[in-house]
Structures are given as C-alpha cells and as structure tokens.
Amino acid sequence: MTYPFPEPVVIDAEVFAELPVALRRPGVTSYWADRNRRGQAVDSFIEGPSFDRQGNLYFVDIPFGRVFRVTSSGEVGQIAEYDGQPNGLKIHADGRIFIADFQNGIMQLDPDKGEVTHALRDCDTEGFKGCNDLHFGHDGALYFTDQGQTGLQDPTGRVYRWQMDTGALTCLIDKVPSPNGLVLDLNEHMLFLAVTRANAVWRLPLSPNGRVNKAGLFIQFSGGRAGPDGLALTDQGGVVVCQTGMGLIWVHDVLGRPIAVVRSPQGLGTTNCAFGGPDGRTLFITESDSGSILKAEFAPELGISGAPMFSGWL
C-alpha cells in the first residue's frame, strides 16, 4: 500500500539518568500500588518532567509522593516528599512549581524549602475526581485535567482552566473518558488532549470567549496496555504523544501526520516528555517501568524542536 506521506523516522532513545538505588523503595507497599497494581510492590512510578530556567529537570513519583530534580549532568536528587499522589508538574514563569495531585488537587512546591502546599483544593467546594496533568498558557492561565477513575465506562472526566490572577475556575469540558496530558497549540486557539482510555488525542477548539466548541478526534491509536499519556508541542506546531504501554513516543506534524517515532530502550512505560537541551532538539522522557529518564536527539535536518515552555526554558 502506498501512503500519502513518508514513513516516520525511527529514533532509538538512550538512558539519560536513572533513579538511584538509594532513592528506590523495593518491597515497600503503598496505597497507590495496592489500588493500581493489585498489591504488586513498585519501587517508584515516575511522571511529570518539566524544566526550570536553569535547565534542571523536575519529575514526580506517584506512589510515594515525591518530587525529584535531575541536573544537566544526570545527577538525581530528592526535593520533597509529602502525603499525596503527584501526577503532573509544570513550572510558572516566576519560578513557582505546580503539581497536579490525584489525591489533593493542585499543589504548589517551594523547591528551596521542599514544602508542598495546597493551591487549589476543589471547584466551588466540590472535590476533584483526581487531577492528572497540567499546562500553562502564555497568559499564565493553568489548564489541568481531572481524570479520576473515568474511562469508557464513565466518560465524565473534566478539563479546567484556572486563571490564577482572578481566581476564575472554568470547566471547559466534562464528558471525557480519562483526560490526561494536554497542550495548547502555538496561537492558543486549540487545546490538544490525551484521552487515555479511548486511546486517542482530541482537539478542543477554544472560541474567543474561551469556551470549547466542536471538540473532535485528532489522532486515533490502537494497541498497548493503556494509551496516550503526556503531550508536548514542537516549535513547528506539531504534537508529541507518549504512548505508554507501547514504549513509544510519536512526533506528528501540524496536521497530525506521524513524522518520527522514538523507541524506549527499556520498559514500555513511556509516560511523559519535555523538550530540552541547548537547541531544544532533545526530548526527555519519563519511563516509569524502569524508573529512568530517557533522551532522544533529533537531527537538525528533521526540523523537529520543542516549543518554548512557560517556565522560560528554551
């Protein structure tokens, strides 16, 4: 069969850093593992990579409520531990670090003190189902997903926009079967949303008054043990999708056509990613099965680089 576009370039990632043995918790049970792994012990489950202005990469550990930081040389250190289940992490332009926590809502981390405090507990006193991931718009508005245990059996997951300067909290959509990673397009007229249990990425057009109209299917996947998880945006307007359970990260152009695919060298739990490196052409990936940070470098001729993050990195 002849396809109307070229086959995607295949790139093999390599290990950039691993969670040190001293920071792993083998044989230790946790509430998260008991409920999500049927009691199977896990020593970590990492997600939420995000760069600060200095080029340090932060990431979280869900079952043990921890936040880590890895330097540009690959040295990993623990920044905080608290009573929670951190899923996503993003950094504000002013340096504040925000966490989407399944147990507690939206949290804020002080990286110098290692303190994690509540930023947003609920919506009009109604508790969240279970916050999963988050993304900053250019104006500082925080977009986040409220996933809980939703799926095809219960398509009631929600996506919110929180304008922190005014305190306005808006539910953009409330009929999603497992909303996960999310990212705005370059002009912020479209919100791309990973819908894990539907094995898909949706597009949510934003009207001038900020409402979602004509939500639609952007990319449909198949196979795997889960589905699309974390998303990132290229500087060319393309969407990067972490297909966890397959050990793959797909890079699409602005039309959604696959132009490259990154393969994990170990483990299938490719959960989230973030662009970094001095030229923005290196993709860093959390591989949760092995507790590793992977990296994949895109050759200049591929024309793939990361869009700037709100933290000011890149």
Automatic annotation (TrEMBL):
Keywords: Metal-binding, Zinc. Substrate binds at residue 132. Pfam families: SGL. Binds 1 divalent metal cation per subunit. Residues 47-287 form the SMP-30/Gluconolactonase/LRE-like region domain. Its cofactor is Zn(2+). The active site is at 229 (proton donor/acceptor). This is Gluconolactonase. It comes from Celeribacter baekdonensis.
